[in-house]
Design a protein that fits this description.
360 residues; mainly alpha; 14 helices
Length: 360
C-alpha cells in the first residue's frame, strides 16, 4: 500500500518510478511490497494560497458570524440571568446587605442557618428570636403544592388531551376554550376563585355547606381551593403540549390494538403514555419548576401570606418569603432564593436521571 503526500504543482509518474527503500530493497510497481508505506515529500515550500476547502474549514472560518448572531441573546442572558444569579449567590453570603445602597457589613455563612431556624436572628438563651416561618410554613406548603398539583394536573391534562384528540367535531373550538385560562390574568382568576370559595359563595351554596375556605380558614382547608386553582390554571399549557404530541403518534399502533381487541385503558397505558414520554418529561420538569415558584395564586386567593389577615403566614410559599423579605432583609431573601435554586436543581437532575434509566 502506497501513501503519497504531494505538492499541488508536482506530477510524479508512479508507474515508471522506482524507490530505494534501503534494507527493504528496490520498491516499485508490481513488486510484492505489501505493508510498505512510502511518503513522497516535496522540498518545495507549500503555496499558502492553496487551501483545501471543506465543511470543517468553512465552519472555522464562519465562527465569528455565529457569535455575531448569538451576541444579542448572550448579552440579554448575561444581564438578566447570569449576572442576577451570581449577584444573588454573593448577597446570600453577606451580612446586613442594604438593598438601596448595595452596602453590607461583611461576609458570613449564618444567613442559611438563620432562615432554617438553626441560629437566632438576635438575642441569646431565653431571649433568642428565631426565624421559623420558612421551615414551619413556606417549605412544607411549597412541597405540598409541588407533589400534589403537578401529578394531578398532568394526569387530568392527559385524559382531556386524549378526549380532544378523538373528537371529530368542534375540536378547535374546545381547544380554544381550554386554552383561555392560560391567557387570563392569574391575579384576576385568583380573585374569582376567592369569591367562589367564600363562606357565602357559590361552592358552599351548591353543596349546602358552610365551610370557611378562604378568609379565616384552617391552613389545610385553605390548601384545597389553592391546589384546585393551581391545577385549573396549569391545565391549558399541558393540554396543548400533549395534544400536539398525540397528533404525531403513528395511527398504526392504534389500528393494531383495535384488531387485537385491546381495551381503551390498556391502549392508553401501553401505547399513548410511552409515545408521549418526551412531552410528559418536559411537562414534569417545567411544572415542578413552576410549582416551586408559586406565588401569584396565593396573592390572588388570600391577598397575603395567611388566611387571617396581617401577621398570619399559614399559606406562605418560598417565593412569597423571598418577596416579602427582599427589601428589609435582603441577605435572608437571597439565601432563601439560593436554597430554592438548589432544591429545583436537585429535583430537575433527579427527574432527568430517572427518565434516562427508564429509557435505557
Amino acid at each position: 500500500m502506497f501513501e503519497f503526500l504531494k505538492n499541488k504543482k508536482e506530477n510524479i509518474d508512479i508507474a515508471n518510478t522506482s524507490f530505494d527503500g534501503g534494507s527493504l530493497g528496490e520498491l516499485g510497481v508490481g513488486n510484492n511490497d505489501n505493508g510498505v508505506i512510502v511518503n513522497v515529500v516535496s522540498r518545495k515550500k507549500i503555496n499558502k494560497n492553496y487551501v483545501v476547502g471543506g465543511v470543517l474549514d468553512q465552519e472555522t472560518k464562519n465562527n465569528w458570524k455565529a457569535w455575531f448572531y448569538l451576541a444579542p441573546v448572550l448579552i440579554l442572558m448575561t444581564i438578566f440571568l447570569i449576572y442576577p444569579l451570581i449577584n444573588t449567590i454573593f448577597i446570600s453570603f453577606t451580612e446586613n446587605y442594604k438593598y438601596a445602597t448595595g452596602t453590607f457589613d461583611g461576609l458570613t455563612l449564618d444567613n442559611f442557618a438563620i432562615i432554617l431556624g438553626l441560629k437566632p436572628i438576635s438575642g441569646t438563651g431565653e431571649t433568642a428570636i428565631y426565624e421559623t416561618n420558612l421551615v414551619t410554613y413556606a417549605i412544607p406548603n411549597t412541597f405540598i403544592i409541588v407533589f400534589l398539583t403537578v401529578p394531578v394536573s398532568i394526569c387530568i391534562a392527559l385524559i382531556i388531551s386524549v378526549l380532544l384528540n378523538n373528537l371529530k367535531w368542534f375540536q378547535k373550538v374546545y381547544q380554544t376554550v381550554f386554552f383561555l385560562p392560560y391567557v387570563t390574568n392569574s391575579i384576576a382568576v385568583g380573585m374569582v376563585f376567592s369569591v367562589l370559595f367564600d363562606k357565602f359563595g357559590l361552592v358552599n351554596y351548591i353543596f349546602h355547606s358552610d365551610i370557611t375556605w378562604i378568609y379565616g380558614a384552617d391552613r389545610w382547608v385553605a390548601m384545597v381551593p389553592l391546589c384546585l386553582y393551581i391545577v385549573w390554571s396549569s391545565l391549558p399549557f399541558k393540554i396543548l403540549i400533549l395534544l400536539s404530541g398525540l397528533q404525531n403518534v403513528d395511527k398504526q399502533y392504534y389500528d393494531a390494538a383495535k384488531i387485537d381487541g385491546a381495551p381503551k385503558w390498556k391502549v392508553l397505558l401501553k401505547i399513548t403514555v410511552p409515545a408521549l414520554r418526551p412531552q410528559i418529561l418536559y411537562l414534569m420538569v417545567t411544572s415542578f419548576i413552576g410549582a416551586f415558584k408559586e406565588y401569584t395564586s396565593v396573592v390572588g386567593l388570600f391577598n397575603g401570606p395567611g388566611t387571617s389577615g396581617k401577621g398570619s403566614y399559614e399559606m406562605y410559599t418560598m417565593v412569597f418569603y423571598i418577596y416579602e423579605n427582599l427589601q428589609q432583609y435582603t441577605s435572608y431573601a437571597a439565601a432563601a432564593a439560593v436554597l430554592l435554586f438548589l432544591i429545583i436543581l436537585v429535583f430537575t437532575f433527579l427527574q432527568l436521571y430517572i427518565n434516562k434509566k427508564k429509557s435505557s
